[in-house]
Amino acid sequence: MAIKDPINDIQVKIVDTTLRDGEQTAGVVFANEEKIIIASMLRDLGVDQLEVGIPTMGGDEKEAIKSIVKRNRNSSNAKSIMAWNRAVTSDIEQSIDCDVDAVAISISVSDIHIKHKLRTSRQWVLENMIKSVEYAKKNGLYVSVNGEDASRADREFLVEFINAAKKAGADRFRYCDTVGIMEPFKLRDEIWYLYDKTKFDIEMHTHNDFGMATANAIAGLMGGANHVGVTVNGLGERAGNAALEEVLMALIYVYGYKTDIDTRKFKEVSEYVSRASGRFLPKWKAIVGENTFVHESGIHADGTIKNPMNYEAYDPAVVGLERQIVIGKHSGKAAIVNKFKEYDIKLSDAEAKDILSLVRATTVRLKRSLFDKELVSLYKQYKEKE
Q1: Among 251, 276, 314, 375, whose Cα sits 20 to 30 Å from the Cα of 336?
Q2: What is the spatial distance between Cα 94 and Cα 89, in angstroms, rounded to a whole number?
Q3: How far is CA 230 from CA 74, 207, 213, 216, 377, in A?
Q4: pLDDT per residue over 261-278, tens digit each?
Q5: What residues does the Pyruvate carboxyltransferase domain cover (predicted)?
Q6: Cα separation, 203 vs 222, whole angstroms
């Protein structure tokens, strides 16, 4: 099957679900004010649509959603605000009450779910989906029909489901790899098949159970999807979702996609969501982890000093980070000499070699790289022994 390259042929819409699926991470609860702040940060970042919660939960959830909608409407760069619903008209009524402009209507489409979760039939699924879509459209809402567990559904039933949703007036289909079992090559072909048979807008919603959420999200776009669901830092059920910052940077730097997303805000957004969610942001986290632009190994540090592009795919300022050359066990003489230049200390080759030996011994003892003050102290001790 010939797969086209749609990444640069279409406008990819970014759908952020940090405030819905991200908050469904076990143990994560955002305070109402935090949800409002996160929504504002994502809006300023430039995402196209924010899925902000589940109105039928009532209480604080509805209050937060209403506040987000109100503030968004008064913003100069207002975005589409979506609420999540089951395929039940009472859920949609709650969303209408929140004054959102878009709804996600979710229903299971795999036989596993239909038989063992819903305990009903494919026909029942189709009937309830159509009824819910028609009700939402009658009330002037943009509608995303979510196929829960689509990755384990019969593909011909998916075609039937999507075409029925399209006929009922839905605006797009959300393909959910609910348990994260897909792999990129198979998923690309699957999305291509579904798009070829339906000619309908498709959103990728991928989970990270096997560590492939970001790759699968991109693969879906390669197959013809034109919306992609993401969360900040990859928050989400179980192992999480495709990470906003990873998907966007891959689109921009791997595929050359042009976007208005302000990537310089990634660090700020990621750190805020990390604190609000109570989920530690690892130093080694792709794109926003502070180690992304930290160099210690002698060969790498030397190459980076000579030209950062030797070991960096893009300038750290692009994502709000800074480059660091740290001194530790794996450092080389070039890094030592360069570091001491910062203190207007010019080391001879012999001095650099001796201090490097002291550095390596000290880092092994401390089991970490050294702070600048510790390096200066080593230098002073070395000079005193001369």
Answers
A1: 314
A2: 9
A3: 25, 10, 9, 12, 47
A4: 999 999 999 999 999 999
A5: 12-267
A6: 12
Q: Roughly what angle, to the nearest 10 degrees, separates helices 155-168 and 184-198?
A: 40
| CB distance 287 to 243 below 8 Å | yes
What's the Cα-to-Cα distance from 113 to each of 91, 99, 219, rounded to whole Å? Answer: 20, 31, 25
Weakest-pLDDT range from 122-136, 172-186, 250-264: 250-264
Please state, in angstroms and as integers, the Cα–Cα distance from residue 141 to each residue in 20, 80, 276, following that order: 19, 11, 30
- The 10s digit of each residue's pLDDT in 10-40 is 789 999 999 999 999 999 999 999 999 999 9
Q: Is 265 exposed, middle or buried (0-12, 13-18, 19+ CB in 10 A)?
A: middle
pLDDT beyond 60 at 1:
no
Residues 385, 358: Cα–Cα separation, whole Å = 13
Contacts of 9 (CB under 8 A, 6+ apart): none
Two tokens, residue 290: 């502070």
Report d(CA 29, CA 197) in Å as an integer.
40
- Distance from C-alpha of 40 to C-alpha of 18, rounded to nearest angstrom: 12
Structure-block tokens of residue 366: 């401390």
Tokens of 135: 């009700």
Q: Phi and psi for 172 in degrees, rounded to 5?
A: -160, 165
Closest CA relative to residue 245, chosen from 77, 46, 53: 46
Q: What is the pTM of this model?
A: 0.90
Residue 222 has phi, psi (to 5 degrees) of -65, -25
